[in-house]
Amino acid sequence: MLLLQPPHPPLRLLSDHALLIEAETKTHLLAADLHLGKSAAFRAHGLPVPEGDTARDLARLSKLILDHRPDHLVIAGDLFHAASGFTGELLETFLKFTAEILIPFTLVMGNHDRKIKTLPPHLHQPAHLDLDTIRIIHNPEDASPAHFNICGHIHPILRIPDGKNTSLRLPCFHLRGNRLTLPAFGSFTGGHIIKPQDSDRFFLSHQGKVIEVPKPLLSRG
Asked: Is 116 exposed, middle or buried (0-12, 13-18, 19+ CB in 10 A)?
């Protein structure tokens, strides 16, 4: 866990690709881009993709809730992947999850979520969510200049060379200006390699902790 201090309130980056927003009266657990049902969508199109990613990712989210006891769960978009993967089995699994966590749940709508016409009606589904001076959005292009923005959508990956012709490609938290982009929480997702700018900061999970990437490593990329 690593403390990051925007204007207010503080954020705690978690090694399992999520974060805690520690407001004065409530703690909010935030993740982005689960893409539940993605493997089912692939199978619906004839690709022999193994099952299990949805159950694993919801179990990870449940463990974070159990470990940190937040008052509120927020997903910064793309909770679900596609209508073709939004099966009755997925809906049943998801409804069981929401019944068991016993805290309010907000889905900030993502581009994939908007394509599904039968989202669970009990989900709070705003286009963005303001928590004090923090605005939670899905697409970085929707960032507000008047807020510190937290978003998803990009699935940021940092490329770090580790040899003459080899490199590591690691999911990361990416801070640029007043915008923090979360790594994708879903285990069955791709990613977009970020080309570092001078003022960028990157944070990676390493051995159960979150560490900031030293600037010399960024310049090698």
From this structure: middle
Both tokens assigned to 95: 């409804």
> Could you give the C-alpha distances from 166 to 123, 169, 194, in angstroms and in order?
44, 10, 17
Instruction: List pLDDT tens digits, range 193-216.
Output: 999 999 999 999 988 999 999 988
Q: Which domains, from first to last, does the chain contain?
A: 2-220 (3.60.21)
Neighbours of 45 (CB within 10 A): 10
pLDDT cut 90: percent of the chain above it: 63
CB atoms within 10 A of CB 13: 24
pTM to 2 decimal places? 0.91
Name the E strands within 102-221: 105-107, 129-131, 134-136, 148-151, 156-161, 167-171, 173-176, 179-181, 192-193, 201-206, 209-212
Confidence at residue 50, expressed as pLDDT on a 0 to 100 scale: 43
Q: Which of 191, 151, 152 is nearest to 170 (CA)?
A: 191
CA 142 to chain CA centroid, Å, is 16
How far, in Å, CA of 182 to CA of 137, rounded?
A: 11
Give 120-152 as a DSSP string: -TTSB--S-EEETTEEE-SSGGG--TTSEEEE-
pLDDT at 162: 74
List the single range of 117-121, 165-169, 217-221 with lowest mean pLDDT.
Answer: 217-221
Note whether 94 and 86 are within 8 A (CB). no
